TrEMBL record:
Residues 665-780 form the GAE domain. PROSITE patterns: GAE. Keywords: Coiled coil, Cytoplasmic vesicle, Golgi apparatus, Membrane, Protein transport, Transport. It is a peripheral membrane protein. This is AP-1 complex subunit gamma. It is found in: Cytoplasmic vesicle membrane; Endomembrane system; Golgi apparatus. SUPFAM superfamilies: ARM repeat, Clathrin adaptor appendage domain. SMART domains: Alpha_adaptinC2 (SM00809). Belongs to the adaptor complexes large subunit family. It comes from Muntiacus muntjak.
Length: 785
């Protein structure tokens, strides 16, 4: 049977000639039977050939586990031809999950001590490919000895094996520290590259090694300067760049050594400037070296001029024809926009041009960077560019683009009219893609700008007459027409084109919204309310409006039906109250009441004299949607009643009588979340007058280099508790330890049961959307006992 076995070349040819997968399997199975028989018979002369064929079958995806023990036999053989195939089989068929890999430890140890370079190379390659932690501990002394061998071939492989050992067993760092300083003087590029990689691994895993190798920074600087300025042999040159692999690895090591160390950073500043100015970026090899230089400059304590040079290099990358290089540049600039904003601003036109990239990943990165570059001085220009991009951008980018424009307009709007015009254009272009709070924000903005009521209602009426498919726009327009319909009919606004509007035209337009199949139930609710308010704004007969209300009194939608029935009751039973009920909304200064309420809450919490005010129904209902995270549906959950202090308690605080209850000992704060510089801390207060009430202040701080935007914190508690969630102080946590964001929770614990919370955080950070759900069950005992 062994005699009829195929040679390796014949097996490969026969497998390639197989026309179907079944024929290939038949060939493999037949040959595997020959190989098994050969292993069983113990043929020492042809066993390495049989194993080579088995390894080829293994690379094609066929099972070859029965050849593991044969690998061990060949490794122990004194013949080099057997060892070569045996070590190759060990690298392919053995790994840490199989106990058989430990059986070759002694064979590797013997081969490392033989002194034959080829055999030592095979053993080192195998050890670095599949050596487990146990093998690394046992063979570390032998590898250490080989690091200083005369043969550069052995030294190179020994260094790479040491890298694998450090990754597997970090505590072996002390073993390889002494030889590294001597190996840095190597002239062999392969050995030097491996040595720099080894030192990098040591510094990343050991603070002691990091301190030790900061002494060799001048030597690394000299080596890199030699590569950049004088070059090397053509053997190590890639596209005219002297050994870019070694340059990149040295730059990575310098970045680690110079991080948070003034002296080391000062030593390498001049060198980094030389690399940045003398490296050709027209080829990929040069671009790789320059990019690594930029990363090093930004990570160490470099001079301001050097950082500007790094940003300019990234700006040149944006003009490169290679899409990968442009993507890398956009991603890097996005990380630098917070720390070096003015330098990145110089490349704003190029970044805006990248918005038109056909590649979706490039245009998304360009959009994120463009939004990050918006400030008070360029908000008009940048918003105009972004609105142009919004009209033609792919659907998967429209939501991010629209939300980014609205957020930028809210932060940097020069005037209220410009702000309103910007939002209206976004709603007209991509209304279905905006965030849910865009409607409420625009309504609040228009309501607080009395001088723009006539302008806004005429703009919205014209936009609604042209298109009723954009639901957020229709909702705002319906609300505005209902509030300021009298101003629409007066036609006294000089800031818009003359527009003649009749009462019947307004009613017809709202009826068209009600009848449209594109209108959502919420949109029809806005239209119904607008019609009802117009009954007090218009001077004509209200029979047409009454008919609409009567029709929707039998609507299948419960919300619309309830509204229509109540509005009908106003017409029939309480007509004398209709004008007072439907009068215009009072002016609301944007952010004023919220700021006042937050100041009031902070004062009350500090004094511990009364509970915080009850949040709105909308906030509470949003919160109850999260209750199923702990105990399932929340249909039976109830809102806690407002806990007003009794007159007696107030009197005690006013007179400061001795009988007043003493404040309890402060409850320690608790840090519940930390990721990439964002920290979430809970602080607790239990008012003495209401022992079942717990006030929790959620404080979010950000020490990273980028703002945390669109931050939303939702909290759930078990059903035995009652929770009220106050409005947060904002949705952005500024970078670099800026003003923290706070949010107040009121938890009523009538049974004094152990408290546990489940939190859901959603936010955007460094251009990525993050969502975290976690449980907090280690609250201090003082919070509930």
């Amino acid at each position: 049977m062994v005699a009829s076995s195929l040679k390796l070349q014949e097996l490969i040819q026969e497998i390639r000639e197989a026309k179907t997968q079944a024929q290939e399997r038949e060939v493999i199975q037949k040959e595997c039977a020959h190989i098994r028989a050969s292993f069983r018979d113990g043929d020492p002369l042809h066993s390495h050939r049989q194993l080579a064929k088995l390894l080829y079958a293994h690379m094609l995806g066929y099972p070859a586990h029965f050849g593991q023990m044969e690998c061990l036999k060949l490794i122990a053989s004194p013949r080099f031809t057997d060892k070569r195939v045996g070590y190759l089989g060990a690298m392919l068929l053995l790994d840490e999950r199989q106990d058989a890999h430990l059986l070759i430890t002694n064979s590797i140890k013997n081969d490392l001590s033989q002194g034959i370079e080829a055999v030592q190379g095979l053993a080192l390659c195998t050890l670095s490919a599949m050596g487990s932690a146990e093998m690394c501990r046992d063979l570390a002394p032998e590898v250490e000895k080989l690091l200083l061998q005369p043969s550069a071939y052995v030294r190179k492989k020994a260094v790479l094996t040491a890298v694998h050992m450090i990754r597997k067993v970090p505590e072996l760092s002390d073993t390889f520290l002494p030889p590294c300083a001597q190996l840095l003087h190597e002239r062999h590029h392969g050995v030097l590259l491996g040595t720099v990689t080894l030192i990098t691994e040591l510094c990343e895993r050991s603070p002691a090694a990091l301190k030790h190798f900061r002494k060799v920074v001048p030597q690394l600087v000299h080596t890199l300067r030699t590569l950049v300025m004088t070059g090397c042999s053509t053997e190590h040159s890639v596209s005219g760049v002297s050994d870019p692999f070694l340059q990149v690895q040295i730059l990575r090591l310098l970045r680690i050594l110079g991080r948070n160390h003034e002296e080391s950073s000062e030593t390498m500043n001049d060198l980094l400037a030389q690399v940045a100015t003398n490296t050709d970026a027209s080829r990929n090899a040069g671009s790789a070296v320059l990019f690594e230089t930029v990363l090093t400059i930004m990570d160490i304590r470099s001079a301001a001029g050097l950082r500007v040079l790094a940003v300019n290099i990234l700006g040149r990358f944006l003009l490169n024809s290679d899409r990968n290089i442009r993507y890398v540049a956009l991603t890097s600039l996005l990380k630098l926009v917070q720390s070096d904003h003015s330098a990145v601003q110089r490349h704003r036109p190029t970044v805006v041009e990248c918005l038109q990239e056909p590649d979706a990943s490039l245009s998304r990165r360009a959009l994120e960077l463009s939004l990050a570059l918006v400030n008070s001085s360029n908000v008009r220009t940048m918003t105009q560019e972004l609105q142009g991009f919004l009209e033609s951008c792919p659907p998967d980018l429209r939501a991010d683009c629209a939300s980014g424009i609205l957020l930028a307009a809210e932060r940097f709007a020069p005037t209220k009219r410009w702000h309103i015009d910007t939002i209206l254009r976004v709603l007209t272009t991509a209304g279905t893609y905006v965030r849910d709070d865009a409607v409420a924000n625009l309504i609040q903005l228009i309501g607080g700008a009395q001088e723009l009521h006539a302008y806004s209602v005429r703009r919205l009426y014209s936009a609604l007459a042209e298109d009723i498919s954009q639901q957020p726009l229709v909702q705002v327009a319906a609300w505005c027409i209902g509030e300021y319909g009298d101003l629409l009919l007066e036609g006294t606004c000089e800031e818009t084109e003359p527009l003649q509007v009749e009462e019947d035209m307004v009613l017809t337009l709202l009826e068209r919204v009600l009848q449209s199949h594109m209108s959502l139930p919420a949109t029809r609710g806005y239209a119904l309310t607008a019609l009802m308010k117009l009954s007090t704004r218009l001077h004509g007969d209200n029979n047409r409006i009454c008919q609409v209300m009567s029709i929707y009194g039998s609507c299948q939608d419960v919300e619309l039906q309830q509204r229509a029935v109540e509005y009908n009751a106003l017409f029939r039973k309480y007509d004398h109250l209709r004008a007072a009920v439907l009068e215009k909304m009072p002016l609301v200064e944007r952010g004023g009441p919220q700021v006042n309420e937050e100041a009031k809450e902070s004062k009350e919490v500090a004094q511990l004299s009364e509970a915080a005010p009850v949040p709105t129904e909308t906030q509470a209902s949003k919160l109850l949607d999260l209750l199923d995270l702990l105990d399932g549906p929340s249909e039976n959950a109830q809102h806690p009643p407002p806990l007003d202090p009794t007159p007696g308690d107030t009197l005690i605080h006013l007179l400061d009588l001795p009988c007043a209850p003493l404040p309890s000992a402060p409850i320690p704060n608790l840090k519940v979340y930390e990721r990439e510089g964002l920290q979430l801390t809970l602080s607790f207060v239990r008012p003495p007058g209401t022992p079942t009430l717990l006030l929790i202040t959620v404080t979010a701080t950000n020490t990273s280099g980028g703002d945390v935007t669109h931050f939303i914190c939702q909290v759930a508690v078990p059903k035995s508790f009652q929770l009220q969630l106050q409005a947060p102080s904002g949705d952005t946590v500024p970078a670099q330890g800026g003003l923290p964001m706070t949010q107040l929770l009121r938890i009523l614990n009538p049974n004094k049961a152990p408290l546990r919370l489940k939190l859901r955080l959603t936010y955007d950070h460094f251009g990525q959307s993050v969502q975290e759900i976690f449980e907090v069950n280690n609250l201090p005992v003082e919070t509930w006992q």
